[in-house]
Amino acid sequence: MAGSHRSELAMIPAELTDGRVLVAGAGVSGRGCARLLADLGVDTVVADDNTEALALIDVPGISVADARRRLSEFSLVVTSPGWRPTSPLLIDAATAGIEVIGDVELAYRLDRAGVFGAPRTWLVVTGTNGKTTTTAMLAAMMDQAAARTGRRAAAVGNIGVSVADAIVDKHRIDVLVAELSSFQLHWSRQFTPDAGVLLNLAEDHIDWHGSFEGYANDKARALAGPIAVAGIDDPRVSYLTGGISGLIGFTLGEPAAGQFGVIDGYLVDNTGAEPVNLAPVEGIEPAGPAGILDALAAAALARSQGVTPSEIAAALAEFRVAGHRGQVVATGAGVRWIDNSKATNPHAADAALGGLDNVIWIAGGQLKGADVTDLVLTHRGRLKAAGLLGIDAEHIAAALAAHAPQVEVFTSRSTDPVVAMDDLVDWAAARATPGDTVLLAPAAASLDMYTGMGHRGDLFAAAANRYAHAAPKETS
C-alpha cells in the first residue's frame, strides 16, 4: 500500500501536514497509525523504548526520552490507546500546546476529510460489559441489510479489524461498526459518530482515568452524535444521559414512547407511531437478560440506519455468541454448562447470573480490589453451590459465608490451572442434577493462573465435556 494515497495529500487535515507527527508507541495500534501516515506522505516519527518493536516499522524511530527532548519538532502526537494521560511524554506535549489524539480520532479525521473516498457511517458501541456481543449482533444486522442497500458493513475497533485498516480496505467498508474502549474515546476530540450506544457502566479502569466520573464521561463520548442510545435500566447510565435530548433508551421492561423494550416475548421498537415487533426473545444467544439487552441495543442502532424488522430477526436467529461470552459448551443429563469466562469483574458476573436458577457457580481469580458482596446478595437465591479457585477465592468464600450460608462451597487449593479447573468441574458434576446450570462466571481476572480469560474458558469447556458424566470423585 506504500505511497498509494500520496495524491490525496491536499485533502489531509492541516494538523497532519503542518509539521512532523509523533506516534507514541510502537505496538499494534502505533504501527498501524505510523504505516497509515507514512503511506499518505506525512512526515512521521515513532517513539518507543522497545527497539525490537521499532524495528518492525519503516519509519524513523526514537526513544521516549529523545522524543521528550525533541517535542518542538512536532505539531501533533498520535498516542496508542493504552498510554495513560499521566505518561510524561503526553504531559509534556500537552504543556507545550501540542494536540494529542488517538488512533480512532486519526482515522475519523482522515475519513471525514474524504482522503479515502466518501465519508463512512460510524456506529459506535461502548460500555463496561457486553460490547463485543452487541457489536457482533449489530454487524450481523447491517450485513442482513447489505443485500438490499448495497452498503458493506464490518465490525472494527476492538473486534474485527482496526479502524486504520478498515478505512483503507481495498474492498470498501461503508459502515464501520466500532467497538470502542474508554481509552480510545478519551483520546477523541472531534470524533462524532453517526450513532452510538452506551450499554452500561460499572467501576473499571479507574486507575487509568483517575476517577469513575472521568471513566464515565469518556464512555459518554460515544453519544456525541445525532443518534444516542443508552441502557436506561442501568441507574448510572440513566443519570449520566438524563439531559440528552432525543435519547433512545432500551429496557427489559415494556418500552415507553421513544424506547426499545420487550412486550409479550418480543423485542419491540416503540419509537414510531405504533410499537413494532422486531424479533422473538426466545432463541437469542446468549440466553438471559444480558443477551436480550445486547440485542435491544444492537436493534436500536440498526433501526436508526433503516434496517427492517425482518432483517433484524434473521440476524438474531443466526447469531451465535463469541467464545467465552455465555456459550453453552456442554449438556447432558438435564444439566447445562455455560462458559462466561469473559465475566472478569463483578458487574459482568452479575449479568451472567441474571435470569438463571439452580446455579452451580464457578468463580475466582484476581478481584483487583473489587467487592463481591452486592453480587452475592443479589444472586444468593439462584445459587445451589459454588466452586472457587484462584488467588482471591477466599474473598468470595467469605462473602458467601456471610450472605449466602445455605450455599455449599468448595475451594480448589491447587495453583495448577488444569488441576484447579478439573477439581471444580468434577466437584460440580458430582452435585449437578437435572435442571441445574454449571456457570463459569469468575467475577475476576485470570492472569493469576491462566494466560488469559480464553485459556480459562477453554479448560472449563474441555473439563465439562470430559468430566460432566464421569463417576463422582471424593471431594474434601
Overview of the structural elements:
With 476 residues, the protein is α/β, with parallel strands linked by helices. It has helices at 28-39, 51-54, 64-69, 88-95, 103-112, 131-149, 163-167, 182-186, 206-209, 212-219, 235-240, 289-304, 309-318, 346-353, 373-379, 393-403, 417-431, 453-467, and strands at 20-24, 44-47, 61-62, 74-79, 99-102, 121-126, 153-157, 175-179, 195-198, 227-231, 248-250, 259-263, 266-270, 276-280, 327-332, 335-339, 359-363, 383-388, 408-411, 437-440. Strands 7-8-6-9-10-11-12-13-14 form a nine-stranded mixed β-sheet. Strands 15-16-20-17-18-19 form a six-stranded mixed β-sheet, sandwiched between helices. Strand 13 and strand 14 (276-280) form a beta hairpin. The longest helix has 19 residues, at 131-149.
In short:
The chain has 476 residues and is α/β, with parallel strands linked by helices. Helix content is 36%, strand content 20%. It has 18 helices and 20 strands.
